[in-house]
Amino acid sequence: MENESLATINKLQFQIAELKMQLKQQSTFCSNIGSTFGYYLWKATQMPAIVDMVLQKDKITKMAKLFTGILSSFVETYNNQMPPINTCETKFILNILGIVANLTTSKSGCHFFTQINDGINLVNHIVTLVLCTPYSLKHNLKKIAYAVLYNVSIQCNGHLLMENNKLIKTLDNDLKVTTYKDIDDTLLFSLKLLHSLTKNMNKSMCTIVRNEINLQEILKLTRYTETELTA
Fold first, then answer.
1. How does pLDDT run across 37-84, given as a tens digit for each residue?
2. Considering the entire predicted model, what is its pTM?
3. Among 13, 38, 78, 182, whose Cα sits 20 to 30 Å from the Cα of 107?
4. Residue 113 class from Cβ within 10 Å (0-12 exposed, 13-18 middle, 19+ buried)?
Protein backbone atom coordinates (compact mmCIF):
# COMPACT_ATOMS: atom_id res chain seq x y z
CA MET A 1 0.00 0.00 0.00
CA GLU A 2 2.80 2.36 0.93
CA ASN A 3 4.64 1.56 -2.30
CA GLU A 4 1.51 2.27 -4.34
CA SER A 5 1.07 5.66 -2.63
CA LEU A 6 4.71 6.54 -3.27
CA ALA A 7 4.37 5.57 -6.92
CA THR A 8 1.24 7.71 -7.24
CA ILE A 9 2.99 10.71 -5.67
CA ASN A 10 5.98 10.30 -7.98
CA LYS A 11 3.67 10.08 -10.97
CA LEU A 12 1.82 13.23 -9.92
CA GLN A 13 5.09 15.10 -9.37
CA PHE A 14 6.25 14.09 -12.84
CA GLN A 15 2.98 15.26 -14.37
CA ILE A 16 3.21 18.59 -12.52
CA ALA A 17 6.78 19.12 -13.74
CA GLU A 18 5.69 18.27 -17.26
CA LEU A 19 2.79 20.73 -17.11
CA LYS A 20 5.08 23.46 -15.78
CA MET A 21 7.44 22.89 -18.69
CA GLN A 22 4.56 23.03 -21.17
CA LEU A 23 3.26 26.26 -19.62
CA LYS A 24 6.72 27.80 -19.78
CA GLN A 25 7.11 26.83 -23.43
CA GLN A 26 3.64 28.20 -24.22
CA SER A 27 4.43 31.43 -22.39
CA THR A 28 7.70 31.84 -24.30
CA PHE A 29 5.92 31.14 -27.59
CA CYS A 30 3.22 33.73 -26.84
CA SER A 31 5.83 36.29 -25.81
CA ASN A 32 7.71 35.70 -29.05
CA ILE A 33 4.55 36.24 -31.09
CA GLY A 34 3.58 39.31 -29.06
CA SER A 35 7.04 40.81 -29.33
CA THR A 36 7.18 40.30 -33.10
CA PHE A 37 3.71 41.62 -33.91
CA GLY A 38 4.09 44.39 -31.33
CA TYR A 39 7.27 45.60 -32.99
CA TYR A 40 5.65 45.87 -36.41
CA LEU A 41 2.59 47.62 -35.00
CA TRP A 42 4.87 50.05 -33.18
CA LYS A 43 6.56 50.92 -36.46
CA ALA A 44 3.24 51.03 -38.33
CA THR A 45 1.75 53.53 -35.89
CA GLN A 46 4.42 56.01 -36.89
CA MET A 47 2.14 56.68 -39.87
CA PRO A 48 -0.79 59.05 -39.17
CA ALA A 49 -3.19 56.97 -41.27
CA ILE A 50 -2.54 53.89 -39.12
CA VAL A 51 -2.95 55.95 -35.94
CA ASP A 52 -6.35 57.18 -37.17
CA MET A 53 -7.39 53.62 -37.96
CA VAL A 54 -6.33 52.29 -34.54
CA LEU A 55 -8.07 55.15 -32.73
CA GLN A 56 -11.48 54.12 -34.01
CA LYS A 57 -13.64 53.63 -30.93
CA ASP A 58 -14.12 49.86 -31.03
CA LYS A 59 -10.47 49.15 -31.88
CA ILE A 60 -8.78 51.46 -29.37
CA THR A 61 -11.03 50.36 -26.50
CA LYS A 62 -10.22 46.69 -27.07
CA MET A 63 -6.53 47.47 -27.50
CA ALA A 64 -6.39 49.55 -24.31
CA LYS A 65 -8.00 46.76 -22.30
CA LEU A 66 -5.60 44.21 -23.80
CA PHE A 67 -2.55 46.38 -23.10
CA THR A 68 -3.72 47.08 -19.55
CA GLY A 69 -4.06 43.36 -18.88
CA ILE A 70 -0.59 42.66 -20.29
CA LEU A 71 1.06 45.44 -18.27
CA SER A 72 -0.75 44.36 -15.12
CA SER A 73 0.35 40.75 -15.57
CA PHE A 74 3.95 41.81 -16.30
CA VAL A 75 4.20 43.99 -13.20
CA GLU A 76 2.53 41.40 -10.96
CA THR A 77 4.83 38.67 -12.26
CA TYR A 78 8.14 40.51 -12.12
CA ASN A 79 7.56 43.58 -9.93
CA ASN A 80 11.03 44.83 -8.90
CA GLN A 81 12.85 41.86 -10.44
CA MET A 82 12.16 42.52 -14.09
CA PRO A 83 13.87 40.46 -16.79
CA PRO A 84 16.58 42.14 -18.89
CA ILE A 85 15.68 44.12 -22.00
CA ASN A 86 16.77 41.37 -24.40
CA THR A 87 14.04 38.97 -23.23
CA CYS A 88 10.87 38.56 -25.29
CA GLU A 89 8.69 39.59 -22.34
CA THR A 90 10.43 42.93 -21.86
CA LYS A 91 10.63 43.59 -25.60
CA PHE A 92 6.88 42.97 -25.77
CA ILE A 93 6.27 45.60 -23.08
CA LEU A 94 8.64 48.01 -24.81
CA ASN A 95 6.70 47.59 -28.05
CA ILE A 96 3.41 48.26 -26.28
CA LEU A 97 4.82 51.47 -24.81
CA GLY A 98 6.05 52.46 -28.26
CA ILE A 99 2.60 51.94 -29.74
CA VAL A 100 0.95 54.03 -27.02
CA ALA A 101 3.61 56.72 -27.43
CA ASN A 102 2.74 56.98 -31.12
CA LEU A 103 -0.99 57.04 -30.42
CA THR A 104 -0.59 59.87 -27.91
CA THR A 105 1.04 62.12 -30.49
CA SER A 106 -2.43 62.86 -31.88
CA LYS A 107 -5.04 65.02 -30.19
CA SER A 108 -7.71 62.32 -30.44
CA GLY A 109 -5.28 59.83 -28.94
CA CYS A 110 -4.56 62.10 -25.99
CA HIS A 111 -8.29 62.64 -25.54
CA PHE A 112 -8.83 58.90 -25.25
CA PHE A 113 -5.99 58.43 -22.77
CA THR A 114 -7.04 61.35 -20.56
CA GLN A 115 -10.84 61.38 -20.75
CA ILE A 116 -11.97 57.78 -21.33
CA ASN A 117 -11.81 55.29 -18.46
CA ASP A 118 -10.09 52.52 -20.44
CA GLY A 119 -7.44 54.97 -21.61
CA ILE A 120 -6.95 56.45 -18.15
CA ASN A 121 -6.60 52.97 -16.69
CA LEU A 122 -3.82 52.17 -19.16
CA VAL A 123 -1.98 55.40 -18.29
CA ASN A 124 -2.23 54.50 -14.60
CA HIS A 125 -0.66 51.12 -15.33
CA ILE A 126 2.16 52.80 -17.25
CA VAL A 127 2.81 54.97 -14.19
CA THR A 128 2.92 51.79 -12.08
CA LEU A 129 5.38 50.26 -14.53
CA VAL A 130 7.62 53.33 -14.24
CA LEU A 131 7.60 53.09 -10.45
CA CYS A 132 8.88 49.52 -10.40
CA THR A 133 11.27 49.70 -13.36
CA PRO A 134 14.82 49.32 -12.03
CA TYR A 135 17.69 51.61 -12.91
CA SER A 136 19.20 48.99 -15.24
CA LEU A 137 16.21 49.27 -17.59
CA LYS A 138 15.78 53.02 -17.38
CA HIS A 139 17.42 53.62 -20.75
CA ASN A 140 14.76 51.56 -22.48
CA LEU A 141 11.43 51.10 -20.75
CA LYS A 142 11.47 54.34 -18.80
CA LYS A 143 12.51 56.43 -21.77
CA ILE A 144 9.48 55.33 -23.80
CA ALA A 145 7.18 55.37 -20.77
CA TYR A 146 8.20 58.94 -19.97
CA ALA A 147 7.53 59.87 -23.60
CA VAL A 148 3.98 58.49 -23.25
CA LEU A 149 3.38 60.34 -19.99
CA TYR A 150 4.76 63.56 -21.43
CA ASN A 151 2.50 63.34 -24.48
CA VAL A 152 -0.49 62.73 -22.22
CA SER A 153 0.47 65.48 -19.77
CA ILE A 154 0.52 68.32 -22.30
CA GLN A 155 -3.05 67.91 -23.55
CA CYS A 156 -6.56 67.64 -22.15
CA ASN A 157 -5.40 68.27 -18.56
CA GLY A 158 -3.55 64.97 -18.66
CA HIS A 159 -1.09 66.25 -16.05
CA LEU A 160 -3.83 65.83 -13.45
CA LEU A 161 -3.52 62.05 -13.84
CA MET A 162 0.04 62.25 -12.56
CA GLU A 163 -0.39 63.93 -9.19
CA ASN A 164 1.51 61.06 -7.65
CA ASN A 165 4.24 61.58 -5.08
CA LYS A 166 5.86 58.25 -5.98
CA LEU A 167 6.07 59.23 -9.64
CA ILE A 168 7.63 62.58 -8.77
CA LYS A 169 10.09 60.84 -6.45
CA THR A 170 11.01 58.43 -9.25
CA LEU A 171 11.58 61.38 -11.57
CA ASP A 172 13.82 62.93 -8.94
CA ASN A 173 15.88 59.74 -8.72
CA ASP A 174 16.28 59.63 -12.49
CA LEU A 175 17.43 63.25 -12.54
CA LYS A 176 20.49 62.55 -10.42
CA VAL A 177 23.62 63.41 -12.40
CA THR A 178 27.25 62.99 -11.39
CA THR A 179 29.00 63.76 -14.70
CA TYR A 180 27.90 64.93 -18.12
CA LYS A 181 28.26 61.32 -19.32
CA ASP A 182 25.20 60.47 -17.22
CA ILE A 183 23.09 62.82 -19.30
CA ASP A 184 21.06 60.68 -21.68
CA ASP A 185 17.69 60.51 -23.38
CA THR A 186 15.98 59.16 -20.28
CA LEU A 187 17.13 62.12 -18.24
CA LEU A 188 15.97 64.54 -20.92
CA PHE A 189 12.56 62.87 -21.08
CA SER A 190 12.43 63.04 -17.28
CA LEU A 191 13.08 66.77 -17.41
CA LYS A 192 10.46 67.31 -20.11
CA LEU A 193 7.86 65.43 -18.09
CA LEU A 194 8.75 67.25 -14.89
CA HIS A 195 8.56 70.59 -16.69
CA SER A 196 5.13 69.71 -18.04
CA LEU A 197 3.84 68.57 -14.66
CA THR A 198 5.07 71.73 -12.92
CA LYS A 199 3.92 74.19 -15.56
CA ASN A 200 0.42 74.68 -14.17
CA MET A 201 0.64 73.26 -10.68
CA ASN A 202 -2.27 73.22 -8.30
CA LYS A 203 -1.73 73.33 -4.55
CA SER A 204 -1.60 69.55 -4.21
CA MET A 205 1.03 69.13 -6.91
CA CYS A 206 3.04 72.03 -5.54
CA THR A 207 3.27 70.28 -2.18
CA ILE A 208 4.32 67.00 -3.80
CA VAL A 209 7.06 68.67 -5.85
CA ARG A 210 8.34 70.63 -2.86
CA ASN A 211 8.61 67.43 -0.82
CA GLU A 212 9.99 65.08 -3.46
CA ILE A 213 12.20 67.06 -5.86
CA ASN A 214 15.79 67.85 -5.00
CA LEU A 215 16.40 71.14 -6.79
CA GLN A 216 20.17 70.82 -6.39
CA GLU A 217 20.19 67.76 -8.65
CA ILE A 218 18.46 69.71 -11.40
CA LEU A 219 20.78 72.67 -10.95
CA LYS A 220 23.73 70.37 -11.59
CA LEU A 221 22.65 70.25 -15.22
CA THR A 222 23.44 73.94 -15.59
CA ARG A 223 27.12 73.28 -14.88
CA TYR A 224 27.74 71.63 -18.23
CA THR A 225 28.39 73.42 -21.47
CA GLU A 226 26.33 72.85 -24.60
CA THR A 227 29.28 70.94 -26.08
CA GLU A 228 29.34 68.55 -23.14
CA LEU A 229 25.59 68.01 -23.28
CA THR A 230 25.74 66.97 -26.93
CA ALA A 231 29.00 65.02 -26.76
1. 888 889 999 999 999 999 987 889 999 999 999 999 889 888 777 888
2. 0.81
3. 38
4. buried
